[in-house]
Amino acid sequence: MHPVVKEIADSYKKPEVVAVKSGDTVRVHQKIKEGNKERIQVFEGLVIRVKNRGSHTASILVRRDTGGYGVEKSYLLHSPLVTKVEIMKRGKVRRNYLTYMRALKGKKARLTAKDFDKSINDVFDPEAAKAEAAAKEAAEKAAAEKAEKEAAEQAELEKKQAEVEAAHSEN
């Protein structure tokens, strides 16, 4: 790869990413934008495939069974929308691509657990922390504005009620 292209590609990488392997049960935190609101959605499932591990296009394919249906989602690890990836369990597997897991249900779909160091999840991304703090601050500000607006409306209603009571007491 040309050095200039490599430099540009590396500028899009996150400083640190959790070392995810196929067979891991992970919890992926993703930013979802709905209209003008933004929230974090969590998807927990089994990593079926890891692609381009060292690249800025590194991705994982996560599968989860919900309501009898298999749901698979692909996540780019260096995407700004993926805020956090936590490894919950590490499974003992000997393949990179676990396509056979799609056909298995119930107890047969379990993998043998492997011991791992839980401190692997302690990855600090300063940009993600900044974005999370900004989102939290914006939510607190919106909540304060809403409470202030509700208090003003309540004061106005109490004022009207006092006026009505005063008018009734005169009669």
CATH topology of the largest domain: SH3 type barrels
**Order of strands across the main sheet:** 4-3-2-1-5-6
Structural class, please?
alpha+beta
Our Rg estimate from Cα atoms comes to: 25 Å
Number of domains: 2
Mean pLDDT: 85
Distance between the termini: 90 Å
* CATH level-1 class of the largest domain: Mainly Beta
Main sheet? 6 strands, antiparallel
- Portion in beta strands: 25-35%
Parts with pLDDT < 50 across at least 5 consecutive residues: none
The global form is: elongated
**In which range does the helix fraction lie?**
25-40%
Total number of β-strand segments?
Answer: 6
Following the backbone from N to C, one meets helices and strands in this order, namely: HEEEEEEH
* Tally of individual helices: 2
List the helices and strands and how they pair.
Blueprint: H1 3-11, E1 24-34, E2 37-51, E3 59-66, E4 69-76, E5 82-91, E6 113-114, H2 126-170
In a nutshell, what does this entry contain?
With 171 residues, this protein is of the alpha+beta class. The chain contains two helices and six strands, in the order H-E-E-E-E-E-E-H. It has a six-stranded antiparallel sheet.
